[in-house]
Design a protein that fits this description.
Elements (H helix, E strand, L loop, with lengths): L6 E6 L15 E2 L2 E2 H10 L4 E6 L4 H7 L4 E4 L4 H10 L7 E6 L7 H12 L4 E7 L4 E2 L5 E2 L5 E3 L3 E4 H8 L8 H7 L4 E5 L10 H12 L1
Helix pairs in contact: 5-6
Amino acid sequence: MDDRTPVWTVIVAAGSGTRFGGAKQYLELAGMRVVDRSVAAAAQVSDGVVVVVPPADVSTESSRSAATAVVAGGPSRAASVRNGLAAVPPEAAIICVHDAARPLAGPDIYHKVVGEVRAGAGGAVPVVPVTDTIRRVDGEVVDRSTLQAVQTPQAFRAELLRMAHTGAGDATDDAGLVQAAGYPVVAVEGHPRNIKITHPHDLVVAEAWLAT
């Protein structure tokens, strides 16, 4: 694949924000909505961006979002990704999947994962070292040097991602589906600022990162 290979991104923003206490994707982060930040970053490196939102929000977001297309999410994250994939044109050779709740993912991370797929990888994901001490529920401490935390955006050869999602069940990670289907996925260096907005305090942390 060369640099002209069409790249599309599916941004998953269909969650209800149960742990956060509301639809976090629509909250403002330093003057810009969380989901809009994710769309803007993806648009810098993609030929098209599909954003997946709660079904009730499709009409409003279609007129408000800068995405190429806005589609309704499904009953699970994997179902929402599949709905997004259905809106990606067949000529797309590389498809990135990104969680809207990671609004600080910049074009640099997209370039890393897309670059690996252009170079021949089936898929690529950004990872960061696990810095906390991890303890099993039985009390045993896990060797954190053997662990990595996986981030998004994740990039894949389009046909592999589509095949992995065909008939697949639920999954919180697209790379896991692709690997389970028998296709290798490589890891690239992520960034500690690429945090996921899960709790209200995460917005404060994200604003601090943006201020640096």
